[in-house]
Amino acid sequence: MQAMFANWMAHAAQAEWAWALFVHFLSLSLLAVGGGITTAPDMHRFIVSSKGWLSEGEFSASIALAQAAPGPNILFVAALGWQIGTKIGTHMGLGLPGLLGTWGFGLLGMGVAMLGIMLPSSVLAIGLNRWLAQHEKAPLVLALKAGLAPLAIAMLLATAWLLLGTGIAVEHILQHWRTLVLALVCLGLVYRTKVHILWVLGLGCVAGLMGWV
Amino acid sequence: MIPSAKMSLAPSPKPQSPLTLFVVFNAIALQGFGGVLPVIQREMVEKRAWFSQDAFLHDWALAQILPGPNVVNFALMMGDKHFGWRGACAALAGILLAPLCILTLILLLYQSLATQPHMASALRGLAIASAGLIAASALKMIAGLRGNSLGLRWALAFIGVAFVLVALLRLPMVAVVLGLAPLACALAYFRRTRAEQC
């Protein structure tokens, strides 16, 4: 028992990977305009190409799994951190699952990844929001809010457009019109009706499973 | 200015406590497959009337334009506005805790899930539905542009230009925002001061 703990401590002391991951994600936080996913290409460059911590498949699986899971899409960062941690833990021969083993590393990876990507931007968001609230009526602040509003709408529309393009192979041009129809149906259901969002998402999943899109 | 019939003298609904925020954000997170914005809009604007459509647009716009995960920014800002740092923590915990637990479970099962051929097609359908949902949210927000200093035509023009630059020309969002924001804000400022002088 003592040997196992000492073994784990020795490996934990070599957690430079966690520090490197944390620092790199810290540097990306303030660049993540439009959400964390916009920095995914650079994360890919760092994690897959530069450090070789994950394979291509593992990287894109993180994104897919985070989208399949409920909650904010930023969770793909947590998935990346987890996979990196457990993989490194396994590689170091930690062996046992559970907190003293690979899972502990997984949680560590998850923690530093999320903390890194969220800390600077969150501090900025809260700080700026407080400052703006104190100067709420200032003409400059009102102009700022007025000017940013249409840009935010445009970013959302762009996100929707780019989402439509996922997984479309150019050869399957014929499938495109069905994609558009499904998207418009979902749009209409949410925009015009009170149908619960989960039903609309379910419709999308079913359409996908049936090979309709 | 004559108050419209919609303006009432009753105080607008607000969340009662940090716990309320935690619970509501929790519920929102658990329904947010493929994106949380549409659920937030349904829940907080349409059902609970915690925001009007234009107030929501302004708060969301800031959360979106600032770097970082939009939903996290929004939750933190909203929580902080109502209850200070306790509210911010409550909102953040609500939006992240349960999803993190579920995600961890999914990751532990990942090995068996990854070999499922249907997973990719289901995810594809989900992505398309999400696209429709996000577009619907954006369209609802356009209603919040009423009364914007830019005026509807200019606002729509900015939407159009920004969309073309990001979605069609694939320019990075950071660059487009840094480029267009000063123009839009300057125009809004100019139009406001001119309107006040009339």
Describe the structure.
The complex is a heterodimer of chains A (213) and B (198). Chain A has 213 residues and is mostly helical. Helices cover 73% and strands 0% of the residues of chain A. Chain A contains 9 helices and no strands. In chain A, helix 2 packs parallel to helix 6 and helix 8 (176-192) runs antiparallel to helix 9 (197-209). The N and C termini of chain A lie far apart (55 Å). In chain B, helix 1 (18-31) crosses helix 4 and helix 3 (53-65) crosses helix 4. The two termini of chain B are 15 Å apart. The model of chain B has no long low-confidence stretch (mean pLDDT 87). At the A-B interface, helix 4, helix 5, helix 6, helix 7 and helix 8 of A face helix 1, helix 2, helix 3, helix 4 and helix 5 of B.
Shape, per Cα inertia axes of chain A: globular
Query: Using DSSP, what is the number of strands of chain B?
Result: 0
Oligomer: heterodimer
State the low-pLDDT regions of chain B, or none. none
Strand element count of chain A? 0
Rg from Cα of chain B: 20 Å
Largest sheet of chain B: none
Percentage of residues in strands of chain B: under 5%
Structural class of chain A: mainly alpha
SSE blueprint and pairings:
The complex is a heterodimer of chains A (213) and B (198).
Chain A: H1 2-12, H2 16-29, H3 40-50, H4 56-68, H5 75-91, H6 102-134, H7 139-164, H8 176-192, H9 197-209
Helix pairs in contact in A: 2-3, 2-6, 4-5, 5-6, 8-9
Chain B: H1 18-31, H2 37-47, H3 53-65, H4 70-114, H5 117-142, H6 151-168, H7 173-197
